[in-house]
Amino acid sequence: MSFARTEIVASGLEAVAAEMCASLVRTAYSPNIKERADCSTALCDVAGRTLALATHSPAHLGSTLGLVPAILQRFPLGRMRPGDVFLANDPYIAGVTHLNDCTLAAPIFVGDEPVGFAAAVAHHSDVGGRVPGSESGDSTSLFQEGVRFPPVQLYAAGERRNDIWETFLLNSRTPHFGEGDLLAQKAAITRGIERMGGMYARFGTGAMAEGIAEMLDATERRTRAGIRERLRRGTFSAEDWLDEDGLTDDPVRLAVAVTVGDGEVEFDFSGSAAELGSGKNVPITHTMATIYYCLKAMVDPGLSINEGLYRPIRVKAPEGSVVNPRPPAGVSSRNLTSMILADVMIAALGQAAPARSMAASGPYQGIILSGRDPARGRYFVDYENFAGGQGGLCTGDGAEVMQVHMTNTSNLPIEVMEIEFPVRVEAYGMIPDSGGAGRFRGGLGVSRDLRILADGTLLAVRSARQRFAARGSRGGKPGTLGAYVVNPGTAAERKLASTLSEHPLAKGDLLRIVTPGGGGYGAPAAREPEAVLRDLREGKVSKAAARTLYAVALAPGGEAVDAGETARLRAAADVPKE
Amino acid sequence: MRTRPEREEMSRTIRVGIDVGGTFTDLYLFEEGSGTVVRHKLPSTPEDPHQAPVRGLVELLRKAGARPAEVGFVGLGTTVATNALLERKGAPTGLITTKGFRDLLEIGRQKRPSVYDPFARRPDPLVRRELRLEVEERIGADGTVIRALDEEGVARALAALLAASVESVAICFLNAYVEPDHERRAAAIARARWPGGHVSVSHEILPEFREYERLNSTVVNAYLAPRMQRYLAEFADEVAGLGIPEPPFVMNSGGGVVSPALAGRRPIDCLLSGPSGGVSGATFLAGMVGLKDIVAFDMGGTSTDVCLVRDGRPEVTHARMVDGLPVRLTALDIHTVGAGGSSVAWIDAGGLLRVGPRSVGAKPGPACYGTGGEEATVTDANVVLGRLNPKHLLGGSLPIDAGRAFAAIERNIARRKGLDVREAAAAILAVSNTSVAQAIRFVSVERGLDPAGFELVAFGGAGPLHAAAVARELGMSVLVPESPGVLCAMGVLTKDIQIDLGRTRLLRASAANAPGEVDALFAGLEREARSAFATGGLAGDGLEVGRTVDARYAGQNYELSAPVPPGARGAGALAAVKAAFHAEHRRLYGYDRPEAEVELVTFRLKATLPVKNPDVGRRRDRRRAGGPAPVGRRRVFFEEAGGFVDCPVYERADLAVGDALAGPAVVEQMDATTVLPPDFRAEVDTLLNLRLTRSGPAAAPAVGAAEARA
């Protein structure tokens, strides 16, 4: 066999997972998968090791951590047949990260021998439960978040089990999406099975096993090498707060102690809050996904996603805590919690990796509008997440209005939205001074005004950083907060709670969504005066902020920096020289 | 007004295709009467881009012994627009847009460029925030006026932009694709107050929905227009100055040529004109020998371009990212892989061998060029393994230092992998060929196709060198054109004069007014196409019209193209579109929903004025007694044969129609080398293409296989 056997096996497995993912995204029916690519596809061996995983969404990085054992516990390998397909969505059994992530998996056979599994995980738009879309920060248990499936047999030796199929669809508010998405998932794993079969036929079982083992070792070595190269050894702690737990005003502490050893890292979440009574808990596989994301981001973005990446990581996440809840604690709204968790981990890792450190970011603010559309005579659900500002980086400004960390979904085109839903967008603009001041400024947040065009529209919101701003780093200032406001600037103005479901809006109401800015990096008065001038010219920073925060004075006319006066202001501000 | 080129005077029988690349400019001349072909190559002049093609024309005509007056057609493929965008050397541009939305250009789709790298930068928008001005106006999604246009505000915004010294202005309002009245009036104000200025308007550039993509496309057009117009005007003047009677044509991204006037107004249509020439040439050549399903495989120094051609038609896309910016345009669906001759081989921190995407380019170049390159590249691996001539390339003009290739691979790869240098070189090729094959399979899968039924048409400097290995992975056979290095220039000659137009109108196929609306929309597009041809000085008679509808199931957010049969109207056209849409959905996605509502989204019209293609089939064959004689022999490493094999080396120019070669063998020509592995055989077809097919499993005994480890 080739002198590059391991490389060819590794790139072959990654190519198969990527083909499966491309097939899933293209053939799926719901916007969640087609437009937002909220899905993942993976190949595992029969021991449950992840061999390759393809996804556009970091939340899926640990999608298959517990899947194979959960299946094998119920369906022993010896009795499995080609054409069997299993369905599961329970986070506490199958290890997915919330009930919406419905997973299909099927054994891959070489002759009579099962050698692995092909899996496709997809966020279904609705799996029943208390609220449309099934996700809600104020749900009080998993039972409010949809139907639970342990691994069940959806196809038996190629034959579809219509009883299961019908049960699944009956529990969804959007069965037309559910059916198309399941078919797309089935097509994706069928492709994975064929292509893996082809690889085994070409290389032989023995060579494949050796190639796979070498590949996992190589990923492990690369991960450990990255840790040794990028991270200082020692223990580094950080904490931050989730605004509230979804049911009360109590803030939720998220804390980590990261211990960097020789080519390995331990994440200790013992300082984090206890399990919440709401849907904002982060199930352990999602906590793991957040760790994998942070490690890739801080150490080596090119790391392959397989078992080898998982090996150098140790985790202390006490059972019954917000980062490792027990059933039946709710988890549907876990993603925003994990966004803050990512900020915390990056703050801790940043102390170990000064060359890649960054300030905290403004996470997205999510809304779901639903109701009856009078013009089209049908029920509608408009689900959108609006990005905040990226935290300032140690190398430059944070990006304005950009998705960060655990999510990278796009906004829906306004012209599509206005056709599909009874709403009109009246403004969508960056908010001056919303990015935390710093030598490298935090990215700006955005303000979006939505005019409601149908009576009886119901609003659900999810958010973070409406109370605890994105912190600056190394002297940088925090970003501004997010907010939801109805009818701003009128007598009827009201500020909404940061977690909310089934809130009625009337025709003519204006909903303003304000997203948080990113934190600044480094002392503001150390910012290049020319950069401040450019921000002023672009209207991203106000004149007042330029003078008071950045200690920059303008020459008469405002078109240039007054260097002498700026030097005097900065001397008075006692700017640390970097 | 001119008549169609086909009816040109009989004396103007010379046709010239020009392909201006980053490094070289290639020219291809075809004389219709005798079938004579003359090729020419000279260095490009990026600092003054029209210089190389003009000088090349002069030299080419001299080489062919032809007079400028005999030239009936000049076609130009150019990367001027692309480079201006990549290097951000367009015109200072201003934007006038709907109040409340000036930041749309910067926010875009709010996604980050690299999921796992927070340090990856999103490209800056082409218009700075202070040059993005808003005016009061608003059109609703149904086309009704929500807020009237503030015409005074438009005038004020224009004055402010001109005061800020912009050279080009883009106008884009929300929902203008459904009701362009406000944009029309704003554009009229701008054009009246700024005579001779460049004004790009969204409903003219791209009357399709999805505001950010339309906005960005309009801005890109505005950004490129002044430079492109200047360049093309200078080129056309110089061509006329040479005494060539016909104005030149410019290749667009969609596989056709357009007049310089139109290309100057709509440079966005030419943004990807460079690589589309090669695909056209490959499609044309393959078609001449009866091959309709091909993969165009253009492997160069830094990257490989791959394009699927189905039933003689290259796959087309309407959405592309160019340097991180989304651009909506009709373009051949070319997929680029970061693997080429100058791609660097390296060992990652886990000990795995990787090839690319980083490339050493032409400078410092592969180590074997001896021009300062120290890193191991794919070209170095080919030299070490005897696949490339170990003494010189490019007809002797590029000396090769095999020792440096050997040393670079030894130092950077072999030692660290514990392999012998030849094994390391073989591993480099295996990794590179695998990634190219995977890319081809990926683009096929995405379109619901199996590459095994396709022919790999290999060109570019490195295509023929790697084609057999890639084809073996995918179960394909290979066609290597007679002149793989100048296929792009030849491709320019095979293009029809073409305009692609599109318009979004959301329409349920079951609606009572749908048949009438469809007819009216296409009639409007056809009028627009005729008027565009007229602007370019071309009569509309003989115009061929192709119509397609982008459709989807109601509720979906992705569309598929369904053709309208020629001549079909009203309900008949609708029924055909629906049937074609269901079938395409089934083919691509594995299922369809015949009972579901079909929504028609974007109506597209392709208007072409056919150009007479070069009749390369009439060319005279070389005459020679007996089979081809090798010009030499050398030892070439084949992994599948287990080591080095003594191979005959043939000169491509010595091969004649009907010649058959058994692998292992090497065929050399000025700017390309074709490698025939032991398990392949080759035949020379009637057009002097080399046709490689797999003859069976690799079984040839290696000569001195043990030496591989020596």
Structure description:
The complex is a heterodimer of chains A (about 575) and B (about 700). With about 575 residues, chain A is α+β, with helices and mostly antiparallel strands. Chain A has 3 domains: about 5-220, no CATH class; about 360-520, no CATH class; about 525-575, no CATH class. Helix content of chain A is about 30%, strand content about 20%. In chain A, the strands form 4 sheets. Chain A has a 7-stranded antiparallel β-sheet. In chain A, strands 14-15-20-17-18 form a 5-stranded antiparallel β-sheet, with helices on one face. Chain A has a 4-stranded mixed β-sheet with strand order 8-9-10-11, covered by helices on one side. In chain A, about 60% of the residues are buried. Among the domains of chain B are: about 5-85 and about 230-270, ATPase, nucleotide binding domain (Nucleotidyltransferase, domain 5, 2-Layer Sandwich), CATH 3.30.420.40; about 85-230, Rossmann fold; about 495-610, Dna Ligase, domain 1, CATH 3.30.1490; about 640-710, no CATH class. Helices cover about 30% and strands about 30% of the residues of chain B. Chain B contains 16 helices and 35 strands. In chain B, the strands form 8 sheets. Chain B has a 10-stranded mixed β-sheet, with helices on both faces. In chain B, α4 packs across α5, α11 (about 400-415) crosses α12 (about 420-445) and α15 crosses α16 (about 570-590). At the A-B interface, α1, α5, α6, α7 and α10 of A face α3, α7 and α12 of B.
